[in-house]
Design goal:
Elements (H helix, E strand, L loop, with lengths): L12 E5 H6 L10 H7 L8 H32 L10 E7 L5 H12 L8 E5 L7 H7 L13 H12 L4 E8 L4 E10 L3 E5 L25 E6 L2 H17 L17 H24 L8 E5 L5 E7 L2
Parallel strand pairs: 2-6, 2-7, 3-6, 7-8
Antiparallel strand pairs: 1-9, 4-5, 8-9
Helix pairs in contact: 3-4, 7-8
Length: 318
């Protein structure tokens, strides 16, 4: 792994180990309290004050610089066009990664930290789970077993949502997904002129699809201003998925309304086998076929070690 002393190598990326990356936030105040970190921590995530200070504090500062620079460029462009300067459209961050890698926690931490910067206090977070087709539609198409794969999402609706955000609409709605019932709900989250929008999901960095006529359409990622991929070794992610499954078996799966209530009756060993089957048949193939190949499209990669902590950061050069 390259450290700070190797940033001038002939590569399109800057790669920093954890220590070198942490130094970049050494003179920035930590905005989150221990209680706030507890509220955003995901199930099984080893997130503490050190992780926030050494990894996410420098990242929030970098993102803030990007937002400020985008604002300056916006004003310069409007001056060039010789027209009154309208409000800048929201800065959109796309955040991708595997199931169980901790991307949801990363998104929540960044949302809280970015909102502490006075230049962009209004930060919205949207997960793409809400844009999954309802279970009934997935069953009709015969792909309920492929939930989470690119074809299980209403990509037109997701694309329209991001386009509406980048068009500067005063109010944009996004559907809400319930992990309890394992389906899209009738609820909507309303986003009203945020400074920043974080769009988090498995496949948000997917390239545009080729249409039947051979033309290439638009991709959701075409409208992102900055992209992040949360990475880890596949064996580690599978282990984290299994550990999360076991914890859910003792908590959420015990709710009678849970779609996965049937798993609450499994023994420990049976649960490990079932979690392995789900990973090998669904999450693993989706990671290798769709999610991981999009990593190279990210502006920044956070690479985790087996203990869930970020070990190094790769940033695309400007």
């Amino acid at each position: 792994m390259a450290g700070a002393g190797h940033i001038n190598e002939a590569t399109p990326y800057v790669e920093l180990d954890r220590a070198a990356w942490a130094e970049l936030g050494a003179h920035t105040d930590q905005p989150l309290s221990a209680d706030e970190i507890d509220r955003v921590r995901g199930l099984g995530e080893q997130l503490d004050l050190d992780e926030v200070a050494e990894v996410y504090l420098p990242l929030s500062r970098l993102l803030s610089l990007y937002v400020e620079s985008a604002g300056a460029l916006h004003r310069s462009q409007e001056d060039f066009l010789d027209r009154p300067t309208p409000p800048r459209t929201p800065f959109v961050i796309g955040l991708a990664g595997s199931v169980a890698v901790g991307k949801s926690t990363t998104a929540r931490v960044l949302q809280q930290m970015l909102a502490h910067w006075p230049v962009h206090p209004k930060v919205a977070l949207v997960t793409t789970d809400g844009f999954l087709y309802p279970n009934a539609e997935l069953e009709r198409r015969g792909i309920l077993h492929r939930k989470g794969f690119p074809e299980s999402y209403d990509r037109k609706a997701l694309l329209k949502f991001v386009i509406d955000i980048k068009s500067g609409r005063d109010e944009v709605e996004a559907p809400v997904y319930s992990h309890l019932v394992y389906d899209v709900t009738d609820e909507k989250v309303v986003i009203q002129r945020p400074d920043i929008v974080i769009v988090e999901g498995l496949n948000v960095l997917q390239p545009a699809q080729t249409r039947p006529d051979g033309r290439t359409g638009l991709a959701v990622s075409d409208f992102f201003d900055f992209t992040i991929y949360v990475d880890a070794a596949t064996n580690d992610i599978k282990q984290w998925y299994t550990e999360r499954f076991l914890r859910l078996r003792e908590t959420a799966f015990r709710d009678p309304q849970s779609y996965f209530a049937k798993y609450a009756k499994l023994s420990h060993d049976e649960s490990v086998v079932e979690a392995g089957r789900i990973w090998d048949e669904i999450n693993g193939p989706n990671l290798s076929q769709n999610v991981a190949p999009s990593r190279s499209r990210a502006t920044l990669v956070l690479r985790k070690g087996g203990d869930h902590s970020v070990r190094w950061v790769r940033l695309r050069k400007l």
